């Protein structure tokens, strides 16, 4: 599952946080009641289809849990914790689990988010462009994110002297995706045309994604869906509302599609 692996010291309560890059996992392996190995390395997304994804509670990071034991159920035997636990900068992963339990003065429970890690590669022509995803800077192209977990990507690619490009694309959990963005040289005509075309393309992708949301919304109201998940819906809606609120395409068919999509988003937002 991992390559270029090297072992690290398991931190205690007073140790500094373990440094993790976007494209690496930490594996904590249990060998005995008090014998653990911590390994850091690159990931192969194709091998992680069986992993369940968990998010740390609000106010905590994955570093806070590297030395915490996780259980599949509450247990009076502290030595029955899960053998292999994976961490990246944002999430905790274990195999085949819908919930995790851990004990800190009392029992706490984490619910599965549902989406397996996804390998995502973003390139640009020309290269060395700044990539922003879901509103957060990620680095420069070519950019490889081996543990991207969200069910969609709202990407912006920018480079001085070139038009900024925006891409909205749904993603399939557990697969790999390679996206190449061509940046036209910047002038008034190309900038306006590029922005308009990007918004039109993104609306089509957005409409398809909305259809997926509609198909699974009734499941999400009762339980977290395996493919998209309540967390993904919330994040997607926030991005959609931000990115497309002021978009008014001139073409009548696109305008109708935009209105239909916007009405759908508002309806979904009121129900989630």
CATH architecture of the largest domain: Sandwich
Distance between the ends: 35 Å
Radius of gyration: 21 Å
Largest sheet: 6 strands, antiparallel
Quick structural gist:
This protein has helices at 188-220, 230-244, 252-271; strands spanning 2-8, 24-32, 35-43, 51-54, 84-87, 92-95, 99-104, 106-111, 118-125, 130-133, 136-140, 143-148, 152-158, 165-170, 176-182. By secondary structure, it is of the alpha+beta class.
Overview of this protein structure:
There is one protein chain. By secondary structure, this protein is α+β, with helices and mostly antiparallel strands. It has helices at 188-220, 230-244, 252-271; strands at 2-8, 24-32, 35-43, 51-54, 84-87, 92-95, 99-104, 106-111, 118-125, 130-133, 136-140, 143-148, 152-158, 165-170, 176-182. It folds into 2 domains: 2-111, no CATH class; 118-271, Carboxypeptidase-like, regulatory domain (Immunoglobulin-like, Sandwich), CATH 2.60.40. 25% of the residues lie in helices and 34% in strands. Helix 1 (188-220) runs parallel beside helix 3 (252-271). The model is unreliable at 1-5, 218-256 and 268-272 (pLDDT under 50).
Question: Which key features would you list for this structure?
Answer:
15 strands; alpha+beta; 34% strand; Immunoglobulin-like; disordered N terminus; 272 residues; six-stranded antiparallel sheet; four-stranded antiparallel sheet
